[in-house]
Design brief:
Elements: H1 12-25, H2 38-45, H3 49-61, E1 65-68, E2 72-75, H4 82-87, H5 94-108, H6 128-140, H7 155-167, E3 177-180, H8 182-194, E4 200-205, H9 209-217, E5 221-228, E6 231-232, H10 234-244, E7 248-251, H11 265-278, E8 281-285, H12 299-303, E9 308-313, E10 325-328, H13 331-345, H14 350-361, H15 365-389, E11 393-394, E12 403-407, H16 414-423, E13 429-430, E14 444-447, H17 454-466
Parallel strand pairs: 4-5, 4-7, 7-8, 8-9
Antiparallel strand pairs: 1-2, 3-10, 5-6, 9-10, 11-12, 12-14, 13-14
Helix pairs in contact: 1-3, 2-3, 6-14, 8-9, 10-11
């Protein structure tokens, strides 16, 4: 059916996907044709079953194949070239689509026992006791579950967030706090309000993967601002602002994903000067603020929400399952975002918001944060030393937060390493997911909280030696 090149730099999964897609396009595989079973294909081409599963899943997701329970995989009947054209449209290249597919798989493959590439904390690092106490308290209340709740979210939690932001020298009213279904909804609302198809938008490069995919979906023209170990490449930032006249800068100054870096105060001031000069709005993703042991100024505190919209979340510290985040910004903008939230999904879950509020106010929250920060600092020290001993280059050593960004000279493409890792029950974080151009890269993201299993380092050592 097709010939695979075992020694090609192109991953086997990509070879299978591209090869079968070409056969379908050229008529070699006609609509309705049944493909060999996964095991048959794997045996015929001397590849792993997992590789074939991943390739077939991609082709199903892209609309080339259809999976029929108990029957197998079949070439899908297609209405014409419109679907292929859509996949080839700007912002939806094959590489980008594959990356989005992989991102979805991160959540679908939570069964993988080792997750050094994921973006959340282990359940026993989270505020499980606080949630349980809050849940017991809610169960004892005579709570009205018949309504939708306040459009902006549970008022006591909004007031609590107002007070917490005041400690960070960000002056807001409770009406400027909009509760969201996690930070992802907050980022999405901000993007849909501020960005139009074709707009030039500045983003960190490498940057926050969910945000990059969301902006591509909206048709934005992504302009990557190089992230350095010491913050932004300010010379590049100034040049890009002058050249592209962007409307918005989506950025994560504190404990950034994937690099873990922190932007220094002087650079934050310079960014705000550029924003004022060039009429630039800034969306500040500050979801790791509670993981930072150092009190720092933010773009929001320096600007007082004149040009800055700030996103926050409790997913990284209480639990990702309760899906409670927030947006703060200029009052007029927050009203617009609240209206968009209503149109898209009515209100957020008051039950989840009350659950978070109970956990935050039951008396042990600050103690939990202190212990969590200390535990992460210890994990950074341990994991950094192990990676260094294996020959990895660390982009930065933040000593805080969850993340390390690293590469090894013997691993030219972290995406291929991620595919091999999955066969060993390991979820890695390949660097192209966080890149503006989606190009192959040796860089990969490590979550220090999920690097306690020696099998992770044993795999990495084998991977480095094999290359």
């Amino acid at each position: 059916m097709l010939t695979l090149q075992a020694h090609s730099p192109v991953p086997l999964v990509t070879q299978i996907v591209d090869g079968l897609r070409k056969l379908i396009e050229e008529g070699g595989l006609r609509a309705g044709t049944k493909l060999p079973s996964i095991r048959q294909f794997a045996q015929a081409h001397a590849v792993s079953v997992f590789t074939v599963v991943e390739a077939y899943d991609r082709l199903v997701a892209q609309g080339w194949l259809v999976s029929r329970p108990h029957s197998g995989f079949f070439v899908r009947r297609r209405a014409g070239a419109s679907h292929a054209a859509a996949l080839a449209a700007p912002g939806a290249s094959g590489a980008a689509f594959d990356a989005m597919w992989y991102l979805r798989k991160i959540f679908e493959n939570r069964h993988l026992s080792m997750k050094p590439g994921c973006g959340w904390l282990p359940h026993d690092w989270l505020f499980e006791d606080g949630l349980k106490r809050s849940l017991r308290g809610l169960a004892a209340e005579d709570m009205d579950l018949g309504g939708y709740g306040d459009p902006k979210g549970y008022p006591p939690l909004r007031q609590l967030i107002r007070d917490a932001l005041a400690e960070q020298e960000i002056a807001v009213t409770a009406e400027q706090v909009l509760l969201t279904q996690g930070s992802s909804q907050g980022l999405d609302l901000a993007a849909r309000r501020l960005v139009r198809p074709g707009d030039a938008v500045l983003v960190d490069d490498p940057g926050y993967a969910n945000q990059l995919f969301g902006l591509r979906f909206l048709g934005a023209k992504l302009i990557g601002v190089p992230r350095l170990p010491g913050g932004y490449d300010l010379a590049a930032l100034e040049r890009l602002v002058e050249q592209h006249k962007p409307r918005v800068f989506f950025t994560q100054p504190r404990l950034q994903s994937p690099t873990g870096t922190v932007v220094p105060l002087a650079q934050l001031h310079r960014v705000l000067q550029l924003a004022e000069k060039h009429d630039l709005l800034i969306v500040e993703n500050d979801i790791y603020a509670d993981l930072d042991p150092q009190p720092r100024a933010s773009l929001a505190s320096l600007d007082q929400l004149n040009r800055v919209v700030q996103i926050g979340s409790y997913s990284k510290t209480i639990s990702p399952n309760i899906r409670v985040g927030h947006v703060v910004g200029h009052p007029d903008l927050v009203e617009d975002l609240a209206q968009m939230k209503l149109l898209a999904g009515l209100t957020s879950s008051e039950f989840g918001e009350r659950l978070a509020y109970g956990a935050l106010t039951e008396g042990r929250w600050r103690k939990h944060l202190k212990a969590l920060r200390e535990r992460l600092a210890q994990a950074h020290e341990r994991v950094g030393q192990r990676l260094d001993a294996l020959g990895f280059e660390l982009f930065a050593e933040p000593k805080a937060g969850m993340l390390l960004w690293a590469r090894h000279p013997a691993i030219p493409d972290s995406a291929q390493a991620s595919i091999e890792a999955a066969e060993s029950d390991i979820l890695l974080g390949p660097g192209h997911l966080f890149s503006v151009d989606m190009a192959p890269t040796p860089w990969m993201r490590f979550n220090v909280a999920f690097c306690g299993d020696e099998r992770v380092f044993a795999f990495l050592e084998r991977c480095c030696r094999a290359k």
